[in-house]
Amino acid sequence: MVRGVIQYGNEKSRKHIINATRNTIAPIPQKVLNELEDKLKQIEGTTTPQEKYNFLEKELIKLNKSRSKNVKKNKLGEETLNLMEERKKMLEKRKDNKENISIISKKIQSSIRIHRKSERLKVLREQIEKTGGIKKGLKELREYTQWIPNIKTKSKKKNEKLTTKRPSIAKVATDFYRKLYTNTDESIQTETGKEGYEEIPGILESEVIKAIKTQKSGKAPGDDKITNEILRESLIAISKCLTNLFNEIMTTEQIPIQWTKSTIVLLHKKGDKNEINNYRPICLMSNLYKVFSKIILGRITKQLEENQPREQAGFHADYSTIDHIHVVKQIIEKLNEFGQLYYMAFVDYNKAFDSLSHNYIWKTLENQGVDKKYIQIIKKNI
């Protein structure tokens, strides 16, 4: 009789990334901040906006790396490790310690459960104190990051099939969003000249400070890995340099090349996970770009708010859709009271924000009195 083992050569693909470490952040020493401020002063007025931005980005990345450290998660605890060391010694004389080994093994299992529960509660407590909720804590406690398992693709014969290879999944997603974002409507064109430009005030350092301070914590950064936390901690050192840089960008309309690139992450919304249409794209962009955008938004918000009708409650400051819901409920009650027939229509647009034509946005901004300079700057960032 011949007995053998058949081994298949198919390599297993990694379905997830294990989160075995926890990122800890150390405070930035004042000496380091002073050195950074001195370095940034040296490049004032000597370089182009792009070169200045490259230098600032490089220094912030270096600063971010120096203050962050990945610490291996202790999933067992000191008590468990001591018990395991004790059991290791017993195993050297297994025959004489069978009963004791069984007892200490149960203690080890119990100790692991207690430690894991304690660590879980500790993380949740920290996040509740920081953010007032447990969402960030649950994200931190997640053991691994799940990838998209497979996606449906259509062949030339229009037959659907599942693809599990990451390059193929990436291609399906790329083709889908390229088609979605391609503007095929040429019915309206906007002027690109500088006619009608008005003199706009320069960006103040106070605007930069306010924008950085109001950035949300715990948000994913762009490819540069510069977080909102590092911007806030280094605010005193970088605020003047950022103010000058933003004013140069406004004057020259030269946008740093880094702002035109972003990473798209897909989050499953609902329905079949194999359908690319059931994923919501999240765009990870540079936080420095978000600060600049917030300053521009702060300047044009008042103009936009004044042009919105009272009937629009959604996406309108100091308004709430609760008021509209209350009005609708009152109308329904009255119609029911008098026995009258009524109809209600609800419209749900597919990919509403993603499918907006940019040309219509520019024209609408212009019609609502937004200065052409701001519109041109926004265009440059698209």
UniProtKB/TrEMBL annotation:
One of its GO terms (biological process) is DNA biosynthetic process. Pfam families: RVT_1 (PF00078). Residues 74-101 form a coiled coil. Residues 248-382 form the Reverse transcriptase domain. Keywords: Coiled coil. It comes from the Eukaryota. Signal peptide: none annotated. This is Reverse transcriptase domain-containing protein. It comes from Mythimna separata. The lineage of its organism: Eukaryota, Metazoa, Ecdysozoa, Arthropoda, Hexapoda.
